[in-house]
Amino acid sequence: MADIAPSISHSKATSPETLLNFSDNRHLIDLCGALDRNLLQIEAALNVQFIRRGNDITIIGDDATQAKAADILNFLYRRVEQGKLVEPADIDAAIRFDGKSPEKPRKSIGQIEMFKGGHLEIRTRKKTVEPRTVTQRAYVEDLFAKELVFGLGPAGTGKTYLAVAAAVSMFINGLVDRIILSRPAVEAGERLGFLPGDMKEKVDPYMQPLYDALNDFFPAKQVEKLIEDKRIEIAPLAFMRGRTLNNAYVVLDEAQNATTMQMKMFLTRMGEGSRMAITGDMSQIDLPRNVPSGLVEAEKILRGVKGIGFTHFKTEDIVRHPMVAKVITAYDKHAKANG
Questions:
Q1: Neighbours of 56 (CB within 10 A)
Q2: pLDDT tens for each residue of 233-284
Q3: What's the predicted TM-score (pTM) here?
């Protein structure tokens, strides 16, 4: 169906108002959500008021917020017309992008056609993933355009999730033969021996976030089969030593807990046809005191090297529950205040 923008009119009788008319009542119901919860979310974020009558929505507020709210409703209505859901995270993304259609890519993103209807998407077996902030968008472009990418920033910004999604997308499109996911098991040491089970059972708890991401993109049985066939590997960073990783998409998560030697070892595992994504949060280093983080040093050494991408996420890029951003911001302020 062709996108049809709702008509807009302005009333100047008492306070400025914007009137939107949506032609398809079924689409309007999906846009508004159960008990108009989608409208309530936008009202709270923009400090506007919506009045819904039939197929009309009146927006009350100052001129700037009315225009932004109209753009967001129009943007989300087109999303519904395309058969997509409108969930709280989608509304949050629309607000972050001001309801504007994303610009065309800043760079070539390789062999995968990522743009559909002007929107950047990562398509996997189970779901389609869309960047929800401007920083996420730039990061996704780098994941497909560059062979080595660093995603740095606080928890909840989608660094690892988007990297795994990109790995899955390139895998199912035949651009890589394997997916390799790794993390440093920083708490292993002596305590690892006291955990029950064989080595896999000992290290799996450290790898669980990577399993969770994979299960979002592949059916569970397919994940099991791919792991069994060694087409997906999930292993601690220490297991990468001595290997050459050809035709693989390799993701290193929690890289701030890699030592300098581990980071250099990992980076030199890259083989022909491979790509690497390295994610970490500099504020969450769990290494022993006086042991420098390999991620911190890698950023200093590699920044400016042609072909390597660095994306820095901030608290405003957090896409988990809004309270996560508030907690991280509070901790950051406390740390700065106490030197």
A1: 15
A2: 988 888 888 888 999 999 999 999 999 999 999 999 999 999 999 999 998 8
A3: 0.74
Secondary element (H or E) of residue 50: strand 49-53
What's the mean pLDDT when you consider all of the chain? 82
Higher-scoring residue by pLDDT: 11, 135: 135
Residue 190 one-letter amino acid: E
Query: How many whole angstroms separate alpha carbon 87 and alpha carbon 127?
Result: 14
Cα(316)–Cα(332) distance, rounded to whole angstroms?
13
- Quickly count: other Cβ atoms within 10 Å of residue 258's Cβ: 29
Contacts of 40 (CB under 8 A, 6+ apart): none
Q: What gap in Å lies between CA 49 and CA 61, rounded to an integer?
A: 7
Size of the chain in residues? 339
Q: How far apart are CA 100 and CA 321, in angstroms?
A: 23
**Is 34 buried (19+), middle (13-18) or exposed (0-12) by CB count in 10 A?**
exposed
CB 155 within 8 A of CB 284: yes
Q: For residue 256, give the amino acid letter.
A: Q
Q: Is-contact 257 287, C-beta < 8 A? A: yes
Contact 224, 156 (CB under 8 A): no
